[in-house]
Fold:
Amino acid sequence: MRNIIDNDSVEVVCLQEIKSVEFSDTRCFSLWGNNEVGWIHNEGLRGAGSLLVMWHKQTFQYESHVVGTGFIVILGLHTKSYLRCAVVNVYAACNMSDKESLWEGLTTLMNSNLNWAWCLCGDFNAVRCASERKGARERGSQKKEVSGFNNFIANNYLVELLLVGKKYTWYRANNTTKSRLDRVLVSEEWLWK
Structure:
């Protein structure tokens, strides 16, 4: 990870499912490669669903954060573009009611910070259409998931950025089932800069 951060001039890193209950400055400095890193950790449920957001202190001027079930939001100023932005690291639960709670919570946060540019990334544990899930049995709840997730994206005026590489981001160990669950969604303001 340190090579990617150094070689690609990474400014923010969002990690999901890191399986750690506790994190420290020393550990983040080691991952980042120096002490010019800020970080927020959400331990999830005893390490399951844990999240970590790290940012370069010189390019992202941290102002505040919100930690909730399945997400971390960091709010601040991108110093190169002077863009006030919110970066959201997402790790959604599998069950539909928890996904709906996540979407509602994120919508409330976005509506309370309308002048900010938003970037939501991570494992949304939801597909946008049936073709994004292969090998899984069709369930009635899948139509509700597709509809609810697409409504969340449309109602918040988010744009999905294209991912490079494989079409699916999750594979069952025997490769019989696969889904596209990981995404990057941004507000239109994010694209303007």
In short: The helical segments are 2-7, 25-32, 96-112, 140-155, 188-192. The chain has a mean pLDDT of 86. Residues 96-112 form the longest helix (17 residues). Residues 2-192 form a domain with the Deoxyribonuclease I; Chain A fold (CATH 3.60.10.10).
